[in-house]
Design goal:
mainly alpha
């Protein structure tokens, strides 16, 4: 059995996105400790665990897509949205934790959620399992957007 390069490249991209976002988040934790948070804010350990699971599921979805997707315009569009999603994921951490722009982070989180929804729609016709693997990500981003909105309300 020949191991394909995408089995290393796709997880590596996920790790880079995850570590970059984590680095930015860690740098903003001193500020985060000073703001008011809604009562339903999960503990940091829960948030970290959820993100780890979501990154694993998204990586599996991307691998399924890459290995089974038919090359062409839709394939290229899906690749672009996977990459865009990674950039939007990092951008949210930068806006919220790096720049403390909570209001802008709400809108950016909405775009992040939209990118996940578009990925689900693009994958659904031929790769339902890959699409289903992204549903928890969509739900979590929806919750995170709502949480960010409530943080903004408490701190504006």
């Amino acid at each position: 059995m020949k191991i394909k390069p995408n089995y290393f490249i796709i997880p590596l991209i996920t790790i880079i996105v995850s570590l970059t976002g984590s680095y930015i988040t860690s740098a903003g934790m001193e500020w985060y400790a000073t703001i008011k948070l809604p009562s339903f804010t999960p503990p940091g350990s829960v948030i970290g665990t959820v993100w780890t699971i979501l990154f694993i599921l998204a990586t599996i979805a991307a691998l399924l897509f890459w290995n089974r997707g038919q090359r062409g315009l839709k394939f290229n569009l899906t690749v672009i949205f996977f990459l865009l999603n990674g950039l939007l994921n990092i951008l949210w951490s930068y806006l919220f934790f790096g720049q403390h722009l909570i209001g802008l982070a709400i809108w950016e989180a909405g775009l992040l959620g939209l990118s996940v929804l578009i990925l689900i729609i693009l994958l659904w016709p031929k790769l339902k399992l890959a699409a289903w693997l992204l549903v928890p990500y969509l739900l979590w981003v929806g919750f995170a957007t709502y949480l960010t909105y409530n943080v903004w309300l408490l701190n504006k």
